[in-house]
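Homework-ish question, so no full write-ups if that breaks the rules, but can someone show me the predicted structure for this set?
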Amino acid sequence: MAGPPQYNQWAPPMQPDAAHDEVRTIFVLGFPPDVKERELQNLLRWWPGYEASQMNFKCDQPMGFALFSTAAMAMAARDALQNLVFDADTNSVLRAEMAKKNLFVKRGVTGDLNAGFDASKRMRTGGGDYSPAPYPAPYPPAYPAQPMAVSAPAWGPQTYAQPQAQYEQYVSYPAPQPSPVAPSGYAPVQNTKDNPPCNTLFIGNLGEAVNENELRALFSGQPGFRQMKVLRQGKNTVCFIEFVDVNSAMSVHANLQGAVLSTSDRGGMRIQFSKNPYGRKREGANTHHEPGLTMAPGVEGNGGAEHTVPPTAVVIGPEQQATV
DNA sequence: AGCACA
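A: Not a homework solution, just the prediction itself:
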């Protein structure tokens, strides 16, 4: 709503480095009404290529915009945000798309006439920080790709699963994950009789027509994915997904619970922890058993707290390391 | 409401 605000007064002066005319801005919907601009920044600031972001509250629901260094990076971020449960309590599930236009990064708003075209560099990779607002209130937003067409599904992921920033670890620039394929939606699913958290998920309640490609497209892009196996049992197909650690499995367990695939014909998929996780030896056969390798923290053993998750690596520049 | 493979 709130029709076009004062866009004119910010008529975009040609940016010298605007060789970037490709759209490298994402548009995010689904935030709860009380979301703060800072939350968007903190959500994205570790993502490769993040340059700046902005939350627009002018419409009936908050709209987030984030600018990345390249279109590819923006798309990777878009896919990573897709269906993310931002707040389980308010059932806020994010929807991300490429924006129609790039976020316009205002410079020198504070009267710093000199800051000029370097403003974007100041903000690069979260140059914002926890200090007083790196840039003042609302900037003119790029027009949303779809002003408010998208709404969060009533059912979906149940927890907030955010790629874990690895603060203590230096990682080379990560290749963005294979883009997770967004489920077409979510449907309620009964999930009583689950098993204790472990590194392997059991996927049930799949449609009769599911195929492995479809499952692989969805799961192989999930952080921490290691391998999967599809098992057909007549009309029933089930699937096992191994993750590098319990936490990764738990995220997907929550995030994709009830996900509906194109082939789903009986509601959303049911995701449970497997009775027989990968990596756990069958009864007897081993000498130095290490239950902690596959058990969740608190369930048994020491629970994988010591495991790192290379595939989810997030870039951290030296300047951030210093401030974190 | 279905749990294989090491």
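Now go work out the reasoning yourself. Hint: Residues 1-20, 108-177, 286-324 of chain A have pLDDT under 50 and may be disordered.
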